Amino acid sequence: MALSEEELRELFDKYKSKLKGQIDLDESSEHLTSSQYNQFKMDLVKTKKTWYEKACSWSESILKLSPDAETARKLKEMAYITHMNVTPEGVMSFSVLVPMFVFVFFGILSFLIFNSLMAVVAMTILALILFYALQKLPFILADSWRLKASSQMVLAVFYVVTYMRHTSNLELAIKFAAQHLSPPLSVDLKRILWDVETQKFPSVKESLDNYLETWKKWSPEFVESMHLVESSLLESSEDRRINALEKALSVMLDETYEKMLHYAHNLKSPITMLHMFGIILPLLGLVMLPLAISFLGITWYELAFFYNIILPIIVYFLGKALLSSRPTGYGDVDISQYHKDYEKFKKVLIRFGKSEFEVDPKYLAVGIFVVLFLIGLFPVLMHLFAPSLVANIDASFKDSFGGKFSFFGYVPTGKDGTGGVQGPFGLGAAILSLFIPLAFGLSMGVYLLLTSHKLVEIREKSKSLEQEFASALFQLANRIGDGLPVEIACQKVAQVMKGTLSGKFFEIVSTNLIQFGMGIEEAIFNKDRGALVFFPSNMIESSMKVLVESAKKGPSAVSNALMNVSTYIKEMHRVNERLKDLLADTISSMKTQISFITPLIAGIVVGLASMITNIMQKLGSQLGQTGASAQSMGNLTQIFGGSGMPTYYFQIVVGVYVVEVIYILAGVASNIENGSDKLGEHYYVGNSLVKATLLYVVITFLVVLMFNLIAGAVTGGLLVNGTPSTSLT
Q1: What angle, 0 to 180 degrees and rounded to 10, lies between the N-to-C axes of helices 220-232 and 204-212?
Q2: Total structural domains in the chain?
Q3: Fewest CB atoms within 10 A around its CB: which of 64, 139, 345, 683?
Q4: pLDDT 10s digits, 432-490
Q5: Which residues lie closer than 8 Å to 649 by C-beta, 6 or more apart?
Q6: Structural domain harbouring 170
Q7: How many CB atoms lie within 10 A of CB 30?
Q8: In a domain, 1, yes or no
């Protein structure tokens, strides 16, 4: 007899209450998902964007603004990609409140301090730029996340395929890949598993398909490869299953190379535009600035606002645009993130006798900055605290050089010198100003180098091992295929490859097995003496994981697995080398611009500006002393009467701009060449900053000195015994 709907409901409620009493089911458990996910994100997402999430939440509580439907949809997608807890309303409110605060507060403050409408206009421009930038910030963060994730996709497919060759289980393969990848892609893969655990999706396949939807536009080759991996689960024969997996990795490698080929061909024009707009045009425009200052009355802080704030922001966004179109590829990781023993290599080791002290490089960098910055401020500080001493030094300096040069060069303004003083125009002040860009460039460069160079050396040793590891795996697979146990096979490979890095690796494994009585897994992965401690590499680690896992299925499984891993490693290395060849010309051009052309052009520009300013200042002073003779020259006195912008301030603006541009362009060049590789980026940017800043300082010093000697000779020839020469009259 069939039960009625009411009887079925009563029966359901009866057993539900009984089940609830047995397992203590809490009705509120469905609300735990949010807090559990937050904890999951805090544990796995190593990111510094929490300030942005808090700022958006705070802004939304003060002024809630809603974007249009299409923008809201895009912002939600960006938040999902980057794992950020922000709403479209919070993003919009934050992008409006901050520019409003800048415009109202800093605009009024600038007007009261400088008493200039130009300051208000500058704050208005800054507010508009902030409004645009803050609205685009979620998209920039999403692009950055995609760039980091896409640089790991080849490796992700490699890990999944490698695992599924010996164990046809998609969930375990994704877990294996997530364990050996670094964030952000590892976090994305863990979220795939998390969504199944929390019953958002009934299976790993459906959760994976949902995640792949976010990459259809950006990386179709990754989507295609993962679909081939999924299809391998449905194959009826082992051969067809293996072929599907091999095809998945082949598609990823071939499509990556093809996309990088087009990217490299299309990169030359944007790089040229970035170089022209970010370096050539701004610096060459400064050559005519000393003449324009006399007519426009531009101050050094207005110049600094444009060159040290507005232009670097524009160059930064242009660089980000170049990186946003970079296809998927490869990228290295900071080994200290996963091998905590290497954190100590980010410190500076100082020895006193038998004692050793670890010093944080940031303290050394701050010390360098303070010392050099104070030396650069010496002319200003001396004028503020010892003006009489400044005058005495200038007087003796002029006597030594026949009145052609001064050290500080503060000159009176207004009629009869009643308007105060202006400067410093002196040669000594111009040279001392070089210490300020040196302070910025050297302190940042030294900090980045000290925190990265030892780790880079260790990683380069591991990468050298990776290059020859495929051959070592091939030999190991053959020895195991001959019937030797894994322990003896490792010893044989170590003997054959003695003197190489691979031989050293397997020698450590063999020593741990024989002398310390470890098992094969502990000999490789032991945190204190394992071979991976001395050769930190995710690829080698994953290969050894495959060795350990497949060893449970017998020698034949181990041999086949290692043979295939060896083939995959060789293929990935071949494609990576081809990708580097494609980008070689562009990267070489960028590095030349960063290391040589930019410092050279900037140094010449400062030297020319110094010579023009010196000549104009001297001519203005001499014409003011000629009385009636100057009246016959029309407006010439008015033109040259202004003192102009001191080379001291002009050089500081240009020097700081050079440091900023080198920092931005070096980061762009590193990301174009290597993908998202923070460790490599820090090392290259630090190295570029130190070398390029020192080169700029040396070139500027020599050019300023030479051009000032020319200016002294020119102005000295224009005045004979205090009377204008015939060339003037």
Answers
A1: 160
A2: 4
A3: 64
A4: 999 999 999 999 999 999 888 888 887 777 777 777 778 888 888 888 888 888 888 88
A5: 300, 303, 304, 433
A6: 151-266
A7: 10
A8: no
